[in-house]
Specification:
Shape: elongated
Protein name: SLA1 homology domain-containing protein
Number of domains: 2
Number of helices: 2
Number of strands: 18
Organism: Luteolibacter flavescens
Strand order of the largest sheet: 1-17-14-13-11-12
Low-confidence stretches: 1-22
Helix content: 10-25%
Radius of gyration: 22 Å
Largest sheet: 6 strands, antiparallel
Signal peptide: 1-22
Order of helices and strands: EEEEEHEEEEEEEEEEEEEH
Distance between the termini: 18 Å
Strand content: over 45%
Keywords: Signal
């Protein structure tokens, strides 16, 4: 379907900056009294992976080789991680609701937003006006929804709004990498989606894109995290 909607992309400086969350250093003690200053990288109920502060080397240790205090610390860490997993799963759940879609400056229509997940299992992010979602990217570029921004240097926040006959997508990030994605938009009155070439978020900058108010659904997919410039990635995608 030919996209008859206007598209406007503006890249602006990100106004709100947050420091990257620091890992907590700890001096771990083995059951035979040896000490190691390290970060706790990951853990299970049987072992812990520690990264030594001095050189970054990682060690996998059975929990029974750690002191009782350190075993309690690991247990507390696991409990906090479980809480994060539960909170993130809840953050990826959208409740059904009704909204007034401003299709023109002086006219609105009621539409029903269905319940469901923001980010699907095949990494498609679906947004409706009023949605605000934090996507955290792994070192391999895979996105996941998080309840709150704890790693600003690997997170992009997406917010879709609708007012005065305009639907607007805001993307904010502190990531010092280029983040690109495919975008499809759906206007009111049709089940068909039209394609929009979004400019990637540039390193540490925010981006704003706008459509006519009839657009009420966006699907973002094929996420790409790159060290290339936004212009280079954009031109590569448009030429495909």
């Amino acid at each position: 379907m030919r996209n008859f909607l206007f598209i406007s992309t503006v890249v602006l400086p990100c106004l709100a900056l947050s420091p990257a969350s620091a890992q907590e250093k700890r001096t771990f003690t083995s059951s035979d009294g040896k000490t190691l200053e390290a970060d706790l990288v990951s853990a299970t109920d049987k072992q812990a992976t520690l990264k030594r502060t001095s050189d970054g080397k990682e060690f996998v240790l059975p929990l029974d080789r750690l002191s009782e205090d350190d075993r309690k610390y690991v247990a507390g860490w696991l409990a906090k991680e479980a809480e994060k997993v539960a909170a993130n799963a809840k953050a990826n759940s959208r409740a059904a609701r009704e909204l007034d879609l401003s299709v023109e400056v002086d006219r609105s229509e009621k539409v029903k937003v269905p319940e469901g997940e923001y980010l699907s299992k095949d990494d498609v992010l679906t947004l409706y006006p009023g949605d605000k979602v934090h996507l955290e990217f792994s070192e391999f570029g895979k996105p996941s929804v998080v309840a709150a921004v704890s790693k600003p240097d690997s997170t992009v926040t997406f917010e879709l709004t609708n007012a005065d006959g305009v639907t607007t997508l805001n993307r904010t990030t502190d990531m010092q990498l280029t983040v690109a994605m495919d975008c499809e938009n759906r206007p009111l009155g049709t089940e068909e989606f039209g394609r929009t070439h979004l400019r990637p978020t540039d390193k540490g900058l925010a981006a704003t894109d706008a459509w006519q108010g009839k657009v009420w659904t966006l699907k973002l997919s094929n996420f790409e995290v790159s060290q290339k410039s936004a212009d280079e990635v954009y031109n590569e995608r448009v030429s495909k």
